[in-house]
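Handover notes (outgoing to incoming on-call)

Open items:
1. M18 family aminopeptidase: sequence verified, structure written out, both below. Nothing else pending on this one.
2. Nothing else urgent.
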Amino acid sequence: MVEKEESRGKKLQKELALPQKSAWERLEGDTREKVFAFAEGYKTFLSRAKTEREAVRAALEAARGRGFVSLADLPPGRGLNPGSRFYLEWRGKVLLMGIMGTADLAEGIRLVGAHVDAPRLDLKPMPLYEKDGLAMFKTHYYGGIKKYQWTALPLALHGVIMLRDGRRVEVVIGEDSADPIFTVSDLLPHLAKEQMKKNMEEALSGDDLNLVVGSIPYPGEDDLKDKIRLAILQLLNERYGLVEEDLITAELELVPAGPARDLGFDRSLVGGYGQDDRVCGYTALQAILDLEVPRHTALVLLVDKEEIGSTGNTGAHSRLLEYAITELAARVGTTSIVHVGRIMANSQAISADVTAGVDPTYENVFDMHNASRLGYGVVLNKYSGARGKYDANDASAEFMGRLRDIFNQNQVIWQSGEMGKVDAGGGGTIAKFLAYFGLDVADCGPALLSMHAPLEIASKVDIYMAYLAYKAFLAS
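M18 family aminopeptidase structure tokens:
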């Protein structure tokens, strides 16, 4: 049988039009097996790293295990050669990992930056009170959440307590099957008639997110007030040695309890808490761990506080990058401000952050011509921001073209995207703070469903393509 010759129109379509095809259908060789194997390590990391401190600690352990040494231990003017692996930890919440390149540092660096904080509930400084036969903790939510999603949910308590005697105590309660869990109670539908008339934003206030923590009174002594509250303080003292004043100096976070899991009959998706943006933190980490000697010095930066505006001395809005580059320059023999500025001006970066994937239930908020889809590859975003690109970085055509070429030359399956319709909302990343120092920057990361919810959804193939994208960029 004679094969029908392909029409001129179909040939032109292949040549000119951008293919719209699932990444799963474009995988070659044994890449499918690599995708699933990579996801296993990611799920372990995601289950273990529930806070920014835990994410930095896990990344630091991995880096040390692969030969990275502390930059602070290296003497100025020597100790760094092409291929040298180093790290700089910052206040337990920021980690910079790097590999020296063969090119002069003045030619610039290649940096992938991600944040490792995530929306959550934090305990207030004086959280413990008793009311109506229950001991409760008051919380203050962190980052952009839908408050109703955090009720009637198993929660675990993670964090650090500084005792008045100077000791530092780490707390993780609720992750082990033998641990108790905590929860924010919800109003039963039988009595929620008035509540359900309110819009979603007003139905629950921030001060309604109170945690149930106990109900047994301190025994005996009937004339005591708040005996349940006292009993909880006694338990905390016996287990951790703390007194109530120590709660003021504590950093305690409530996160969804339990591990990340495969999602879907075909196990093609990962469901878990904190994938915004630990999916990019993990893939960037693995990219630099697996990187050989690059031409330009390659850096991966994991930062805190992005979900509340990148503020504070552990956020990308701080001068920590400038400090790190200055320290790096000093190790190769210069402390000149001009030299440090030249390094930054010649540098290029990826702001590794997630974006919104099309949710079939809520298509109306997406521009379907420019929307990202789960399973179609890592997403390259020219800009983020909101309503007229406000607060965005907006990468240049030249830099976008360079990233496109890097990805295509390294078999990275990628797609374009943006955060919904123009006036539907929007969001920011750390891109603008990296650009402040003169770096060329663009956003790139997997698309998610249910972003900022206690359980977010990512595609395993997009996760793997993010790893390939970051590795190819760092090697460029």
